[in-house]
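Standup notes
- HV: blocked on the assembly model, inputs below
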Amino acid sequence: MEDLGQFLLYSAIAVGKGALVTIVVTVASLLLGFVLAVPLSIGRTYGNRPIQFLIQLYEGFFRGTPHIVTLFIFYFGLRHVGELFGNPAFQIAIPPFPAAVLALGITSSAYQSLIFRSSIQAISRDQYNAARSLGMGRWQAILTIVFVQALRLSIPGLTNEATIVLKDSPITYLVAIPEMLTQARGIIDSAMGKVFFEVLIPVSLIYFGLFVLSNKLFEMLDEKLKIPGFELERR
Amino acid sequence: MGSENILTVKDLVKEFGDNRVLDKISFTVKRGEVVVIIGPSGTGKSTLLRCINSLTPPDEGRVWLDDREITDKHSNINQIRQDIGFVFQHFALFNHLSALGNVEVGLYKVKKMTREAARKKAIEELTRVGLQDHMEKFPAELSGGQQQRVGIARSLAMDPKIMMFDEPTSALDPELTGEVLTVMKDLAQAGMTMVVVSHEIGFARAVADRIVFMEEGNIVEDGPPEEILKNAKKARTREFLHKITELYGE
Amino acid sequence: MKKLVAVVLVLCVVSGALFAGGAQEGKDELVVGTSAGFRPFEYREMGEVTGFDIDLMKAIGEEMGREIVVRDMDFDALIEAVSTGTIDVVAAGMTITDERKERVDFTEAYFVADQAALVREGSDLNLNSPSDLNSSDLTIGVQNDTTGAFWVDENASNAKIQKYGKYIETIQDLENRNLDVIVLDKPVAEAFEKNRPTEMIFVIPTDEAYGLAVKKGSPMLDDLNSALKKVKNSDTWDALIKEYFGS
């Protein structure tokens, strides 16, 4: 790779591929987290005691366990699950990409559930009462009146969560996911260590750029869902 | 149950911890009657209304709307609630919907009307309360009086048999109470059955068929306005009215 | 609001598709575990893992009628990975040793190499033979779990030994003067010598042979061996040697 131009091109391609993987892993994990967090937060707020207890366990486990450990459980750990039942041949073998998204996504769902729950609680109980007074059923009132507003309130929390998952994504290299940091290390390696900061600084800037982009997207979402009059006090 | 009584409440009991907020309350409301409930704060007036439509289920006692028992576990409570309009002290408008949205939502989501039919009816009701020029506005953009009128329109749109008002003007600035009371007076004159918890004695005098005085979870006195306001039988009633007229000057 | 829900649902479906695509590891695919960073056997170029071992496995895969899928991970994770079936075979310049044979089965050797000692260009440590490495004044760097690491543990235990996940980290610390000398496989040392201000001062003859590793008792061993044999006897093999080692 004597040719600087060629080196830059090859490197850009490598980092580009890595960035794409980083984005896909992050977005897929956030989505999984979201889809799980909606019923979790609603169940924890409105469900009966047993349900609340189970959800509390779930939240506690995934928020309290280091994300790397969760990742290992899904990728490596589950392959050993048969040994627990005396049947070592039985494995739950999840390939790298699903394992990474499951681990990051389920972890994120525990955090997102907390975000939604606090938003739900911020919505005055009379909103629910008014909906029921009109004759809406329990779930209709919860979903169409309370939760809709709670989602709107959750946007700042979700913006933050997106950043966290993005910054978590490099740990997936441990399960053979070729995300951006892996690619960066590969370039450094290919150049025999001749470059180091020259690679890491641009890559850091790209992570930062993704962070800015993510924030901007949420800002736009916030703007779009703005409730007229409500925001007046904020400015 | 005679078909005259649209609402029957029998031996309603509600306790919050050691506090017995409703102590075997019984009363009836006839079709077209306007009943105003007065009394010191915290005596269970709001709780009474919320127990009637089971927003707060009572511990003991039974409630009937016409001949449908609300307190019966097998009743379809959601369906019965469509016939009971409820107006909240703090308006409880859906913040994410415009005035129009607030009024139509019950129509297309609960009564299953088409969106066009729901919109049409919502516009009618909002016009009825004088808000035809504010339909696209959101609750945060409306004054308290306007919000409460939307709340009334929202309940009216469901064509209820009876309207209940839980201190509808207590959260309003004095200048704004007038517009809401006017709407309520018109409603009464149009023949709507109403149960109103309020301090507005002027409104009671003008429009009520009966005034009920509640204290400490009990109905102390129940009679026509002339009687209660001028010649209350119980000393406590007179004491309370005295205090009220001092406060609200009437 | 409805549009938002629609967008989210679409994204969910797309992710699901990607997910599922990854979830189906075709039964015919051969999952190869490696650890990029060991030129010229496996390294990253333009974002993809490539190198002698990769091309060799592609050829073997062809012989076996299977497509290969490459998984890049830390070297010391490979044996665990193949033992649990996370990967089917290890192709990572892995030396056949008795200790390793206790945990995995190896194919016939496909490459023979020695270890070598690498220092900074111009450093005058006066090291002339392997026994000189056994000095408490020295800090030696090795890649964790490699035969270089084992050799140093056994033969240079007086020295301060530092273990790393990837070779490039040892090179960096060598240049930072955190290390005095690195012990690593000769072909890789030669590659580094060409490209970095380093010097290969002597060879440590260990006569190591690289083999492909599979899970202990794996029925795949015989197929791999016969495919390997066919490839070694073919023109493909000559071409590979020329490409990666003919200078």
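- HV (later): unblocked. Chain B has a mean pLDDT of 92. Residues 174-189 of chain B form the longest helix (16 residues).
- Next: hand off to the docking folks.
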